[in-house]
Amino acid sequence: MPNRVQWSPGYNMGHETLDREHQNILAQCNVLADCISDAAQESDQTFQQTFNTLMAQAAEHFATEEALLTQSGYPMLEEHQNEHDEFDYLANEIITTENFEKIELQRFLSLWWVGHIVGSGKKYRGHLELMAPSPPRQITLALPTKTAATPGSAAG
Ligand SMILES: [Fe+2]
User: Which of 4, 21, 106, 127 has its CB surrounded by the most CB atoms within 10 Å?
Assistant: First the structure.
């Protein structure tokens, strides 16, 4: 059985872009599940296209996430980057094995992504909340006091 995943409110990171990207990726996992359940021949092609889309979305998401964590000075950035590298490695391992099974790939992707979302939430949701831009502060400008350089006062 393919592993269908459902978005849970607990998956929200409170960051619009990251949440949207996570949701889109889980949606692709479910399209892959549909392709496996569907016996039609075109579903093989749809599976491949969906997998490619998911990998492109994953690459974009990792870039977004790394940029955000870098900007905000996340202390465990390297560990997070390793997780992304590990994903690329494992996904590529599965598709190049001789006994490549679509269901194995679908199950790997859905479990990995739920794990990533839940794990990221635990690891850096608090960090992002701390780093979220606070409402604009009132800035008091130190205006220069009137000097002798006013019109008509220049030394002649
Ligand atoms: Fe993520």
Answer: 106
